[in-house]
Design brief:
The protein contains 23 helices and 31 strands. It is 32% helix and 17% strand. It folds into 5 domains: 29 residues; 211 residues, Penicillin binding protein transpeptidase fold (Orthogonal Bundle), CATH 1.10.3810.10; 295 residues, DD-peptidase/beta-lactamase superfamily (Beta-lactamase, 3-Layer(aba) Sandwich), CATH 3.40.710.10; 69 residues, no CATH class; 75 residues, Immunoglobulin-like, CATH 2.60.40. The radius of gyration is 39 Å and the shape is elongated. The strands form 12 sheets. It has a 5-stranded antiparallel β-sheet, with helices on both faces. It has a 4-stranded mixed β-sheet with strand order 24-31-30-27, with no helix packed on it. It has a 3-stranded mixed β-sheet with strand order 2-1-5, with no helix packed on it. The longest helix has 20 residues.
């Protein structure tokens, strides 16, 4: 040491020594102060913006929307990051992170040596702090000046932030590939797990991705990802003293990706909320949503042989109007329009609107479920001409109660009822008041067919309309999110119907015995607890509906094809019915089923089902035409009178039933009798087809418009014939050309003819 000092004194005079010392001091001071001349990157001044999260009612994530830069991100604190992931990240990127102050001089020396020896960059020397500065700064050219700027900025950051803060920011800003920023989002995306559930192998794989997210992408290059994982695992043994046995287990761990996709839970709802600017908590119950999606997937497999490709389900909590489950198609990834939301797409209503027709009739005509409707041939004039509606069984049933007509979904009775209350206008107006917004045309354009399905409705809207029935006439808008301002306060009670009448309709819809004639006693509509339910099937089997409720929940199901192709031979009860049944059972696994509370002012009476009249005393046991019925206490039906029956105890019906009574449809001649006979000197007259009419064969109409109902004024219908058309009973099979049809009075032999022209569009 003395020799060295003497040598320095000999070579460097005192003045030069002082100048060099000053320069050294200034250099050291400059190296310490200079970093503060470089501002911290703007990207460090705030946390990365989060993905918009769509959650269920409890906060469980249903789906996430990417930011405007297409990245998904969810922040994490350092305490939530597994130690294995921290260790793996450090050995992969910066093993001396906790020992340096922003720059790793050993790494710089090694990288410089390798560059000189190999003539190319072999290894990097950037620390985690430097990388954080780089990824938090605006993109710039990679040159020497920017490298120096990053180094000095890194030293500045080390003065300002703790190591823990730097590491947290780094783990939250790293690009893990596939537009996933931050380790939490990466764990969720690649493994479908929370960070805390990651294995050592999974932590090592994630730690290896930021070096080159594209090269090591496990979705596209699994072997490269595994090779990188293996390298990191070996370094964990060397640098972090991980036990070899633990490393061996991780090495042998197969690459099992459980990628979270946006279509796992409620993808249609998640997709509909993409325009939101902030995270959303929905009304959905994730556990129930999962069950319903499973039910739909299973039932769709059953229905494929009937060419039914799609299904949709809505579950509503009646007390609040909150939607607990929403399944739009069954398979969001189905290339056959699976992304269409079947809960909001307008579809032909079938018979699903009939309960509201009868609800209006009960209110406006002061009827009750035992009131009689004439289910007889009834022609109506429509915009397309004269129409003769028929029932599902192609038969007419004569005098039937409202209970029977609604429970068995008789078309003719529903249309006659709608006509009796003033036609489609009152029904159209009522449906608008209960939230059916898909009826865009004026009421007149639908005509009486509005009640049997010639209008389009959405599943969500009509299910919520049924929920109003379950609330005994209180309408509430369906609610899909818990943060919607319009639901900040309970909306004013909107009583759209009298509670007693709503209860009567609900009572009919829950009567399994009443609907057994059409659906059988053990159909999917029968549940082990009382449930109101109505099915619907549109023309040519293009739509199936099944909607019903208990006190607490309303379930709506639609089955069909989004391309509007017909299904093969399945109705609402066989198509949508099983999905409804299983969903209702799933709803009430942990929730005791309850029925509606009967309002005051309803009496239970005994009626004659042929007349709707009330027995003053209970008939003897075994009376075949009695039924227990509910009615308003202040609007009791007329009492039974002897004049209601003939000498054989057959109920007398009026002359409007004459044609039906004389037809082959009538199987009730033992219990019914006509009060009058055929008028004298009755001249046969053809009602349909009309004089000099031209009929068009339109492929857009059901059955192409080929079937023409033949109507006359004869009570027994008469006999029809044509030299050029096939006639079956009272139906002509139309073909293009000029034709003549003839009506023959079976009693008098009188004939009358009509000419028609048939053309094809």
């Amino acid at each position: 040491m003395p020799d060295l000092q003497r040598t320095i004194k000999r070579l460097l005079p005192a003045g030069k020594r002082r100048r060099l010392l000053a320069l050294a001091v200034l250099g050291v001071a400059g190296w310490s102060i200079l970093p503060f001349a470089f501002k911290l990157p703007s990207g460090l001044r705030s946390e990365p913006s989060e993905s918009i999260v769509i959650a269920d009612r409890t906060g469980l994530v249903l789906g996430k929307m990417a930011r405007t830069d297409y990245f998904h991100h969810e922040p994490v604190s350092l305490t939530e990051v597994p130690a294995a992931l921290i260790d793996a990240t450090l050995v992969a990127e910066d093993k001396r992170f906790f020992r340096h102050r922003g720059l790793d001089y050993f790494a710089i020396a090694r990288a410089t040596r390798d560059l000189l020896l190999e003539g190319r960059i072999v290894s990097g020397a950037s620390t985690i702090t430097q990388q954080l500065v780089k990824i938090s700064s605006p993109p710039g050219k990679r040159n020497l000046f920017n490298k120096i700027r990053e180094a000095l900025t890194a030293r500045h950051l080390e003065y300002r932030w703790s190591k823990e803060e730097i590491l947290t920011a780094y783990l939250n800003r790293l690009d893990y590939g596939n537009h996933r920023q931050g380790c939490r989002e990466a764990a969720r995306f690649y493994f479908g797990k929370a960070l805390s559930d990651l294995s050592l192998g999974e932590c090592s794989l994630l730690a290896g991705l930021p070096q080159s997210p594209t090269l090591h992408n496990p979705l596209r290059n699994p072997q490269s990802a595994l090779h990188r994982r293996s390298w990191i695992l070996k370094r964990l043994t060397k640098e972090r003293n991980y036990h070899p046995d633990r490393i061996h287990v991780a090495e042998c761990e197969p690459l099992h990706l459980d990628q979270i996709s946006s279509d796992q839970l409620a993808p249609h709802l998640v997709s509909s909320l993409r325009s939101r600017q902030a995270s959303v908590r929905t009304t959905l119950d994730a556990a129930l949503q999962q069950k319903v999606q499973f039910i739909v997937r299973e039932e769709r497999r059953r229905l494929r042989h009937s060419n039914a490709q799609h299904a949709a389900v809505v579950v509503i909590k009646n007390s609040s109007g909150e939607v607990l489950s929403l399944v739009g198609s069954g398979d969001f990834q189905d290339p056959r329009a699976g992304q269409i939301d079947g809960t909001r797409s307008p579809r032909s209503a079938g018979s699903i609107l009939k309960p509201f027709t009868y609800l209006l009739a009960l209110e406006e005509k002061e009827l009750f479920p035992g009131s009689i409707i004439a289910d007889i041939p009834t022609p109506y004039r429509t915009e397309e001409g004269l129409d003769l509606p028929v029932n599902y069984d192609r038969k007419f049933h004569g005098p039937v109660t409202i209970r029977y007509a609604l429970a068995n979904s008789l078309n003719v009775a529903a249309m006659r009822t709608l006509n009796a209350i003033g036609g489609p206008v009152p029904l159209h107006s009522f449906l608008d008041r209960i939230g059916i917004e898909t009826l865009k045309q004026p009421a007149a354009s639908y005509g009486l067919g509005l009640t049997i399905g010639n209008a389009e409705v959405s599943l969500l809207e009509v299910t919520n309309a049924y929920a109003a029935l379950a609330r005994l006439g209180v309408y509430k808008p369906a609610r899909l999110t818990l943060d919607d301002e319009k639901f900040a306060h309970d909306p004013q009670i909107n009583q759209i119907a009298e509670p007693r009448y709503c209860y009567l309709i609900s009572d009919i819809l829950s009567d399994n015995a009443a609907r057994s004639a059409a659906f059988g006693p053990q159909s999917p509509l029968r549940l082990p607890f009382r449930t109101a339910v109505k099915t619907g099937t549109s023309s040519d089997f293009r739509d199936n509906w099944c909607i019903g409720f208990t006190r607490d929940f309303t379930v709506g199901v639609w089955v069909g094809n989004f391309d509007n192709s017909p299904m093969r031979g399945i109705s609402g009860v066989s198509g949508a019915g099983p999905i409804f049944n299983r969903t209702m059972l799933a709803l009430h696994e942990k929730h005791s089923p309850c029925w509606l509370q009967r309002p005051g002012g309803l009496n239970e009476i005994t009626i004659d089902t042929r007349t709707g009249n009330r027995f003053l005393s209970k008939p003897r046991d075994g009376h075949p035409f009695t039924s227990q019925e509910l009615c308003l206490s202040d609007k009791l039906p007329r009492a039974v009178q002897p004049a209601d029956y003939d000498n054989h105890n057959r109920a007398l019906i009026d002359e409007r039933y004459l044609e039906w009574f004389s037809s082959a449809d009538n199987h009730r001649k033992d219990d019914l009798a006509i009060t009058s006979q055929r008028p004298e000197n009755l001249t046969p007259r053809i009602i349909s087809p009309t004089e000099t009419a031209t009929y068009l064969l339109d492929p857009e109409l059901p059955s192409g418009g080929r079937f023409l109902p033949l109507l006359s004024n004869l009570p027994a219908g008469g006999t029809w014939s044509s030299p050029t058309l096939k006639i079956e009973g009272t139906t002509a099979h139309l073909t293009p050309g000029h034709h003549r049809v003839t009506l023959t009075d079976s009693q008098t032999g009188q004939q009358v003819s009509q000419s028609i022209l048939v053309e094809s569009l």
